[in-house]
Write a structure and sequence with these properties.
The chain is an all-alpha fold and 425 residues long. The protein is built from 17 helices and no strands. The chain is globular, with a radius of gyration of 20 Å.
Length: 425
């Protein structure tokens, strides 16, 4: 059978497509929140409980999903989780109250938690070390593309056919991706479309101190959690995630209640921060190898430089409460999306840099649990305080969190890099 040149990038495309669908389902509720708040008669604080149900499920399952993916393997494990999140998102159409939404939202969180650990594990297997941040940047763009597509698509379907149909559509497309993943995903060692030269390039580009072990065995949880570099990723992710979850779950409601935009105006503008986030994730991915090439910075340090730059840029969205124009606020949200996805892509890449192939999904899952714990706590704070103190002080906190996270990365990840390996294909 004819081989496909550069096939590793097709694998990234397949992962990115799954992430787009995952985030399309995830963001459907946020887009419909202003309408559902009226139709199902729930308060802002009750909406925070609905969001919290998703976050609790997602937080708990990040570590479980990572372990399951390392144990079951990517082909089977990701297929099962993909089918589950598709079903649970479609069930949102049956909700008759905020309690029903919270139930189905919690189930969605349990299943969607597999997406990021699965993507990081696949990139760890399919890419040499020096290309990983670029691959993660494109994969991470799927999170923003899904969020970007949600406002126009979900609102259009809702206006044409009702909000229930919007949930059915965004859930149903997941089954198409599951069929593609089951049919086309294999490890690099086994894939029939991967050429021998590219397979060798991938293998030679792995760090010499990392074992290319893809067997399905119990990941060493104690070893992972006792590694200081694990905490050098987990703590900054805990501090960074509140920004991303605020953008995903609260921007439409903020634009409606504070900036007084209607549903059509939200559809026009609410996707822009996620377009900027796509660009930020991709820029962060390319920044790392460029810094290595031109400034002779080692691998780990090149990731840290991008994280620090993203933290500085988060000062922009921290200033949203100071601006009068809603369009300036949207521009600052865009800066925040760009900055956060720089940070997110590089923190996720560090998991693949630090951990072996048979433990990377578990490690990334545990750092994801830390991240979503931070996001959950902050969403509950937003729900409790947004109406009393306003959103402005809360946005300031997001900037401060990321600056603190950058300091933690510098402190705990150290300065020792990984030797560059492999040439270009």
């Amino acid at each position: 059978m004819k081989k496909i040149s550069g096939f590793r990038w097709w694998i990234v495309g397949l992962i990115c497509l799954g992430t787009i669908i995952n985030y399309l389902a995830r963001n459907s509720l946020a887009v419909l929140a202003p309408e559902l708040q009226k139709k199902l008669n729930f308060t802002t604080q009750e909406y925070s409980y609905i969001v919290g149900a998703f976050q609790i499920g997602y937080t708990i399952m990040q570590s479980v999903c990572g372990f399951a993916l390392d144990f079951l393997g990517l082909k089977l494990g990701f297929s099962l989780f993909g089918a589950a999140w598709s079903v649970f998102n479609m069930l949102h159409a049956a909700a008759a109250s905020w309690l029903g939404l919270a139930l189905f939202r919690g189930l969605l969180g349990l299943s969607e938690a597999a997406a990021i650990p699965a993507g990081i594990k696949a990139i760890s297997e399919w890419f040499p070390a020096k290309e990983r941040s670029v691959a993660v940047g494109y994969f991470n763009a799927g999170t923003s593309l899904g969020a970007l597509l949600a406002p126009p698509l979900v609102i259009w379907v809702s206006l044409q056919h009702g909000w229930q149909t919007a949930f059915v559509v965004t859930g149903g497309v997941g089954f198409i991706w599951v069929a593609l993943w089951w049919s086309f995903y294999r490890s690099p060692q086994d894939h029939w479309l991967l050429g021998d030269r590219e397979r060798q390039y991938i293998q030679e580009g792995q760090e010499p101190d990392k074992k290319a072990d893809t067997t399905h065995k119990r990941p060493p949880i104690k070893k992972i959690l006792s590694n200081p570099k694990f905490w050098g990723i987990a703590i900054p992710r805990f501090l960074a995630e509140p920004a991303w979850q605020t953008f995903n779950f609260w921007i439409p409601l903020y634009l409606a209640t504070v900036r007084h935009m209607n549903l059509k105006e939200i559809a026009i503008f609410a996707w822009l921060p996620f377009l900027a986030a796509d660009l930020g994730g991709i820029f962060g991915g390319y920044l790392s190898p460029l810094v290595m090439k031109f400034f002779k910075v080692q691998l780990i340090n090149s990731r840290i430089i991008g994280i620090v730059l993203g933290a500085v840029l988060m000062i922009g969205p921290g200033s949203i409460g100071l601006v009068a124009s809603p369009y300036t606020a949207i521009a600052l949200f865009c800066m925040g999306g760009f900055a956060h996805q720089m940070i997110s892509a590089l923190l996720n890449t560090l998991s693949a840099d630090v951990f072996d192939a048979h433990e990377v999904a578990t490690a990334n899952g545990f750092t994801g649990t830390a991240a979503w714990t931070g996001g959950l706590l902050f969403s509950l704070i937003v729900g409790a305080l947004a109406n009393s103190v306003g959103y402005g002080p809360l946005f300031v906190c997001l900037a401060l969190f990321d600056i603190l996270g950058a300091i933690v990365v510098i402190t705990l990840m150290g300065v020792r890099g990984v030797k560059k390996a492999g040439g270009a294909v």
